Amino acid sequence: MADIDRSLVRALPLFNKLSDAELDRLLASATMRRVGMGEAVFEQGQKADRFFLLLHGRLKVTQVTADGQQIIVRMVHPGDIFGFAKALQRDDYPGTPTASAESVVICWPTEVWGLFVEQNPHLAVNAMQTIGQRLQEAHTRIREMATEEVERRVAHAVLRLVEQAGKTEGTGIRIDFQISRQDIAEMTGTTLHTVSRILSAWEAKGLVEGGRQKLLVRDTAGLQILAEGQAD
Amino acid sequence: MADIDRSLVRALPLFNKLSDAELDRLLASATMRRVGMGEAVFEQGQKADRFFLLLHGRLKVTQVTADGQQIIVRMVHPGDIFGFAKALQRDDYPGTPTASAESVVICWPTEVWGLFVEQNPHLAVNAMQTIGQRLQEAHTRIREMATEEVERRVAHAVLRLVEQAGKTEGTGIRIDFQISRQDIAEMTGTTLHTVSRILSAWEAKGLVEGGRQKLLVRDTAGLQILAEGQAD
DNA sequence: CGCGAGTTTGAGGCTGTTCAAAGAGGGTGG
DNA sequence: CCACCCTCTTTGAACAGCCTCAAACTCGCG
Description:
Two copies of one chain form a homodimer. In chain A, the strands form two sheets. In chain A, strands 1, 2, 3, 4 and 5 form a five-stranded antiparallel β-sheet that branches. A four-stranded antiparallel β-sheet of chain A has the order 6-7-9-8. By secondary structure, the first copy, chain A, is α+β, with helices and mostly antiparallel strands. In chain A, helix 4 packs across helix 5, helix 4 (150-165) crosses helix 7 and helix 5 (181-188) crosses helix 6 (192-205). Helix content of chain A is 40%, strand content 24%. The first copy, chain A, folds into two domains: 6-145, Jelly Rolls; 149-227, Arc Repressor Mutant, subunit A (Orthogonal Bundle). At the A-B interface, helix 2 and helix 3 of A face helix 2 and helix 3 of B. Chain A binds a DNA duplex through helix 6.
């Protein structure tokens, strides 16, 4: 396996305080891997022997409940680390990350995690901030699910997608990976039927433009208003 | 301010790999504080200049939404750290921790956080695991809110309370702090009315015993069955 | 061109909310 | 020590939002 050039990851905030030498040492034990559309990086329940960094593309992390229902726990964006189950004192992965776009990941054996964290305090602090932010996002989502009705939750979810995966395109902002109504439903805790109805209504109002596994947001401000709840 | 004896915290997993000397150094910059029932340790939105460890008692962390709705983000149990907003790159507190029982906390100025984390890799690893577990709990809760109906969510919440704050008592297990129907509602994303109805039904079945701000679980296994969804 | 996956739309029903009001526990002050 | 009051709790009734079930439609790929 060829070495990974440090220029690929140098810009990531996670590594921004490491010296070149430290970074190279880190990359020495890493390997790269391509993940095709719809392919899973690993499966929920599998023994956690690696942790990962998403270099390019987009992943959705799903969990399946005992009775077969699925939800999307979060999206993984370029630069995010994921699958660091060992840092959470688990030895299996709690979810399944599936590529929603052609993706490239870097992976390390879990053994090196503790090593790197203990040897690079900066990395530890950065990693903790990353997890901390993720915790905050989770709390935000809990709050939304507890207090908001479906339309507002969907509005929030779409706005988040715009921020994290929005790409300006002529008439609006395109979500730049394949996303189905079902996906949005699993992100907001509702059914694809309800999502479809909501998006249809929004399309009629000129807020968005739909399509098969596609979503284009035309009026971010309008969505913002819906999300804030000052609706109508 | 008198020194804090290290025996008070020595047993906590968070510190279990620190030497006595390291621990003493840590405690040197700490102060202790009593928090009475219903009193807040700090307020949501306040500038985050300290972080805390709950030594004794019980706290509920609430968030208030823009439109005045309140939810309980989590409970803080003895040995938990909380209010480490700086580790999350925030400079204000995202929630308000209120004492649900007479409590005692230890607090440090936030400045020392980075210092200690960088100087004590063990502490960093432990802290990360703590946050990681919290993240997992949050994901569990998201999944429950997305896929389960209210009765199951309440069952899960009560079982969690039994685990974290259960005290065997004659005919069952007592939740050992003051908890209202409203609290349970805010933990599960429903209304106090619905919680009251559910608990009344459970009481009729002999699963629990209610009371003003009190809860006694008589049949954990029965609740477990409800929580798993094999109901009826 | 046909098939399958994803989407749209309708109708009906159920769970849980909202609104309303009455009932109990416990602490406090007289 | 008792009465009162405040807060928490219980319960009912009506409504509504969303889900479930069902069926048709359409886009894009093989």
